[in-house]
Amino acid sequence: MTAGQLPRWADYILMPAINVAAAFIVSGLVVLLIGENPIEAVKVLVWGSLGWNEGIGFTLFYATNFIFTGLAVAIAFHAGLFNIGGEGQAYLGGLGVALACLALDRYVPWWVTLPFAVAGAAAFGAAWAFIPAVLQAKRGSHVVITTIMFNFIAASLMVYLLVNVMSKPGSMQPETRTFEDGGRLPLLQDVLPFTDFGSAPVNFSFLLALAACLFVWVLVWRTRLGYEIRTFGANQTAAVYAGISPVRITVVTMLISGGLAGMMAINEIMGSQHRLLIEFVSGYGFVGIAVALMGRAHPVGIVFAAILFGMLYQGGAELAFEMPAITRDMIVVIQGLVILFAGALEHMFRPALLRVFGVLSAPAGTPA
Amino acid sequence: MSEELAIELVGIDKRFGPVHANKNIDLKVRKGSIHGIVGENGAGKSTLMSILYGFYHADGGEIRVDGKAVSIAGSQAAIALGIGMVHQHFMLVENFTVLENVILGAEGGPVLAGGVSRARAELKRLAADYDLKVDPDAVIGDLPVGLQQRVEILKALFRGADILILDEPTGVLTPAEADHLFRILRVLRDEGKTVLLITHKLREIMAATDHVSVMRRGEIVATRKTQKTSMGELAELMVGRRVLLEVAKGPATPGRPVLQVEGLTVRDGRGVDVVRDVSLEVRAGEIVGIAGVSGNGQSQLLEAIAGIRKVRSGSVTVDGTRIDLAATEVDAARMRRLGLAHVPEDRHRMGLVTRFPECENAILGYHHDPAYGRGAFLDYDAIRTAAREKIEKYDIRPPQCMLKTANFSGGNQQKIVLAREIERDPVILLVGQPTRGVDIGAIEFIHKRLVALRDAGKGVLLVSVELDEIRALADRVLVMFDGRVVGERAPETEDSELGLLMAGAAGQEAAE
């Protein structure tokens, strides 16, 4: 009966570590194949992302996006839902942020605008998840299908809005005007004393992302709603037996998930770009799936996974710069391998690991 | 009876990680005999049979078939050695005919025609030889379970099995069907086949076997000639201590009605009425048992009363509050608030979230209770304290409220559900299959608890496919067949009479 289980630490730390190591080994082989030194490449990647202040700043900036989209996927996981519409929900979240900033930036300081921007991001992201949620809950249309279709609708809608409605008068660019100071978040180094991230755009949103982690942890493991979400995700029949409404949980969870995905736009739009522009989400929503898988749908795991992917983004850019043979596409290959090993092949090493632990614990273990 | 051995197991040993499922098993099965293997759930019976049938490979030991040491790598090898298995859950293709199922995997070449006509002749011979009559052209889905099981046996014989393993074969049968099965097994034995019968029902062992081996915690603790042992001795061997097979209970003193069901009809997803116009009443201080062969609407009836399943028509009155189940939106939470508690038939699928720690399952369905938290938040200190109290009171082992529920044994899982439902002090408790997959020690405990609840003036509605259980607990017995209540009897009624009702022979009675 106890067979098939790993100790918690092995499940949460050792497994992901092995998966990442495997991904890096295979990536190393690929690097070797194109005639570069893999050790050298790893050095560049790690130094580029963690070795200097600005590098760290960029890593954390990317990680902020991943934390939000990762949390969005994770909360849906807990309810047994697979929300792969983070991309579209974040895109629409950007609209919410931009509307708040455009309305307020000339009149009030950033800390007055922020709550409205957060509310806008969450509300627009949630609204974009609402229709797939209702379709799933009432009609049984699978959210995987509907959310991915909503990503395309979001893309088209935003192009329409940015080209026809929201673009700067007289400009050909599909983007809004640049926000004034009231619509710009301060940089992290200006908020946290004794920090210096050079010209990296990491900003106040990073703290917001950490707060979101705490929020998700409390919600999932310490509230009655979280209990219902986890029950529904683990055993739907038991949930109905317990008087938990499947419709309510599906809709509520998807709203929270969409809201979290939408919050990613705070970092990009209010924290860095200071205007709403086309395709600013650029895949962060999808990578959130890998982040959530790798972080085992736990906020702490997600922070670490988000930082790892932040490193890959930032270090990868450095790598492409330092080693011309390793192009931007190579970085995508490495990211793909990490996703493959952490997500798709997650259970590849589990049986072997189980055997190792079985052997280690057999003499001392008592049958349950 | 010949002294030749059909199967001899020597020192069979099997571990699953830290679990030692089979410890140094020695077993001798005589050719041409019916050999029973009894033991509680988790005693290792199924593991042992799976080794014999090639599903698992033993870590150590030797298997001898007809005196020769063999290695059984898979079910194909087992079949080649003349070992056939009838599984607890039938391995039949529902929309194939009997003939098609029998030849499945033994078609005898890429062209069906030749094999089919040979199979038809062979089936005819087997039917005649062993009294196993089944229409070869009937579609499996249309056959009652008793006949489906016969097809499973035919399948094994068709493949030339001389040794037949039956794993809990009577779980889905009426008493009459079970008796017929035992008759078939005796014919098979008399024709020289060897039968291994795995069960946890002592009555069947006594009725059908020549020899019996008792397993406990992965070991064979005794092998007896069936004639020279008794149910009491076997039960004691299985559990390792004396057990009471009868529940001590005084006469019921029924009071006011606490549950009234009127005209309940439930239609399932296929558009079939699975519960038809059922009315019943449970009074305070009595246990009403619903007997019936599994699949005759008992499960749906229980779920409908609990507010889990949508109904077509009908109402339920709990402690004086009447709810029209068809007209109002009800859920389990609302029924619970009225004082209705429910121990579902299938604790894994419905009663528990097995991946949660024990303490979280102890609040399932009651997680909105103010005692377990404030406002939107849950108070885990309070939850753990409440869980520990129940663990102590119900002797749930191991006594660890943070342990994952999947790691508790079946009996202890059932106690977790019972403790949760009974400790809420309900006015009416619905119980489905309270002791399915539960070992004898825990059965005794659970039965005592249910009787104590009755004696405390609560109503209990008990659904069970174990007639013995209904007899032991119920003060009144309702029999369900094909979605209807076809009769009410006293628990002392003869097996044969209840059996007839359960088989639908008295279906007219309901129409009166």
Question: How would you describe this structure to a colleague?
Answer:
The complex is a heterodimer of chains A (368) and B (512). In chain A, 73% of the residues lie in helices and 0% in strands. Chain A is globular, with a radius of gyration of 22 Å. Chain A contains 15 helices and no strands. Chain A has 368 residues and is mostly helical. By secondary structure, chain B is an alpha/beta fold. Chain B has two domains: 5-239, P-loop containing nucleotide triphosphate hydrolases (Rossmann fold), CATH 3.40.50; 257-355 and 428-511, P-loop containing nucleotide triphosphate hydrolases (Rossmann fold, 3-Layer(aba) Sandwich), CATH 3.40.50.300. Chain B contains 17 helices and 22 strands. In chain B, the strands form five sheets. In chain B, strands 6-7-8-3-9-10 form a six-stranded mixed β-sheet, sandwiched between helices. Chain B has a six-stranded mixed β-sheet with strand order 16-19-20-13-21-22, with helices on both faces. In chain B, β4 and β5 form a beta hairpin.
At a glance:
The complex is a heterodimer of chains A (368) and B (512). Chain A is an all-alpha fold.
Q: How many E-type strands of chain B?
A: 22
- Give the CA-CA distance, first to last residue of chain A: 7 Å
Shape of chain A: globular
Mean model confidence by pLDDT of chain A: 90
- Beta strand % of chain B: 25-35%
- Secondary-structure class of chain B: alpha/beta
Structural class of chain A: mainly alpha
Q: What is the helical fraction of chain A, as a range of percent?
A: over 70%
Output the CATH topology of the largest domain in chain B.
Rossmann fold
CATH architecture heading of chain A: Orthogonal Bundle
Strand content of chain A: under 5%
Main pleated sheet of chain A: none
Measured distance between first and last alpha carbons of chain B: 53 Å
Which regions of chain A are unreliable across 5 or more consecutive residues at pLDDT < 50? 363-368
What is the domain tally of chain B? 2
CATH architecture call of the largest domain in chain B: 3-Layer(aba) Sandwich
Level-1 CATH class name of chain A:
Mainly Alpha
- The run of helices and strands of chain A is HHHHHHHHHHHHHHH
